[in-house]
Amino acid sequence: MILLGTLKLISFFVAVMMFFITMTPLYLVYKLNPYQMRPVLAKGLQLYCKLGLVIFNVKIINQRELDNLKESSPAFYVSNHLSYLDVVIYGSLKPFCFVTSQEMREVPFLGQLCEVAACAFVERRSKKNLSSEVRDLTETMKNKGNIFVFPEGTSTNGEEVIRFRRPLFRSAIDAGVKVRPFTLNYLRFDDKVINKGNRDIVCWYDDMTFLDHLIKLLRVRSIKVEIIPHSSISTKNTDITELSERAQYLVSKDYRSFSDRKLVSDVSRLSESVLT
User: Fold this and answer.
1) Is 154 part of a structural domain of the chain?
2) d(Cα 51, Cα 79) in Å, to the nearest integer?
3) Helix/strand/coil for 72
4) What's the domain count of the chain?
5) Cβ atoms within 10 Å, residue 153
6) 149 and 205 in contact (C-beta within 8 Å)?
7) Which residue, 7, 228, 231, 258, is the most exposed by fewest CB within 10 angstroms?
8) Which region holds residue 118: left if phi is over 0, alpha if psi is between -120 and 50, else beta?
9) Nearest to 272 by CA among 64, 80, 51
């Protein structure tokens, strides 16, 4: 297990080095023309996220249901948020411009990764720049970029889907695009159902240290996840409150809290998509 974790850790950092080497020139061009270059950088990010799925050995059990994402129009995508691994999983599906916080931008290493990936940054601690942040997302979608937001505003311990923050939904209305909600359920790692007792192997939240968590996660042999797509929500004749509440309802109704799961030792009794 330790040897596997070491090999995967080396692979991870080699991939990160490759990411910086290949993406930095594009990032420099992006700084000159951000809205047109963001979709280009998102395509580069998608390639590395696919590589990330291989390194973490993540299997999306309902991959076929998500194939129509490839051809869909630009939209405002939202999901529940449990870990930095969420970005790798979703980023592998489609070129997304992810939205994260200024606080993340200030975190060594992770902040630089987000910068080069052309993430959009929002300040959760103040609403002073909210209008410019909304405009930034709006212009990205008008230039055929796909915005991906985790409206809970932080990664959680998976007890529940917490209240969605409303302000950024304004950009979907202003851009005239639909809101597309998804529910992410982590199902198993190795031969274990993920539940309240072992969720910290996958979930990253509160004061957890990134490197310590990453090392533990890379020791896991395999991870199975489920992504449930929901119907798009029109932004015509609506407001941010209605949009955020509707999106949260759709995400929450198919979310499986870790507290509700029983530890199943015989995994053959557990279906791929239903947890008891």
Assistant:
1) yes
2) 22
3) coil
4) 1
5) 16
6) no
7) 231
8) left
9) 64
Q: Using CA atoms, how far apart are residues 254 and 68, in angstroms rounded to an integer?
A: 20
Q: Which helix (H) or strand (E) holds 97?
A: strand 97-101
* CB neighbours of residue 63 within 10 Å: 11
Per DSSP (E only), the strands in 114-234 are 120-122, 147-149, 179-189, 192-193, 223-229
74 touches 141 (CB < 8 A): yes
CATH of the domain at 92: 3.40.1130
Print pLDDT tens along the chain (276 aa): 677 778 999 999 999 999 999 999 999 999 999 998 999 999 999 999 999 999 999 999 988 888 777 767 899 999 999 999 999 999 999 999 999 999 999 888 999 999 999 999 998 878 888 999 999 999 999 999 999 999 999 999 999 999 999 999 999 999 999 999 999 999 999 989 999 999 999 999 999 999 999 999 999 999 999 999 999 999 999 999 999 999 999 999 999 999 877 644 333 334 444 443
The letter for the amino acid at 54 is: V
Does residue 276 belong to any structural domain of this protein? no
Question: Does residue 161 belong to any structural domain of this protein?
Answer: yes
pTM of the model: 0.91
Which residue range is the domain that position 35 belongs to?
2-269
